[in-house]
Design goal:
With about 160 residues, this protein is mainly alpha-helical. Helix content is about 60%, strand content about 0%. The chain has a single domain, classed as Lysozyme (Orthogonal Bundle), CATH 1.10.530. The longest helix has 16 residues. The two termini are about 15 Å apart. The model has no long low-confidence stretch (mean pLDDT about 95).
Length: about 160
């Protein structure tokens, strides 16, 4: 076995965070698990090759900071901002925390997706979840791709 146990990650990290943020759905759970699988394989906490991305969800510090500065600062999102601050013991939000605080990293990944107006795909559609990841998380300029290998990782996330 390589990496984290997906069922444990789902039950102990991802689901409680999504519930705390008020953003739980099976589609969101599967999207976050699949995103983690294609981004880090559940193995890497820092981007290979010297890139800036951090944590299992491989979020760049600039994206992390933008989520706080331009999304979580809105009054209507104070519940989510408070939930994230609770996850980090009311420390100041810092991208570096995503390396060691799995719940915070998962929460920030979900916040990144929350900023997308397109609804989440069906929870059991690996190809659609993979395409959603590529379009809204990895982006057009990112190195990731919608391919059979990545779709299989999303399928493994669904099955976990």
């Amino acid at each position: 076995m390589r990496g984290l146990n997906l069922s444990q990650l789902r039950l102990l990290i991802v689901r409680p965070v999504l519930q705390a943020l008020g953003l739980w759905s099976m589609a969101a759970e599967n999207l976050l698990l699949g995103t983690m699988m294609v981004e880090s394989g559940g193995v890497y906490l820092q981007q290979i090759g010297g890139g800036p991305a951090l944590g299992l969800w491989q979020m760049e510090p600039a994206t992390h900071d933008d989520c706080w500065n331009n999304w979580l600062c809105a009054p209507g999102r104070s519940r989510q901002a408070t939930a994230l601050r609770q996850l980090i013991g009311y420390l100041g939000p810092s991208a570096d925390l995503m390396v060691w605080n799995l719940r915070y990293a998962a929460g920030m990944a979900r916040i990144r997706y929350q900023r997308v107006s397109e609804p989440l795909p069906a929870a059991d559609d690996a190809a659609a979840l993979c395409a959603y990841w590529k379009a809204h998380y990895n982006t057009a300029g990112g190195a990731g791709a919608v391919n059979d290998n990545h779709i299989a990782l999303f399928q493994a996330a669904i099955a976990a």
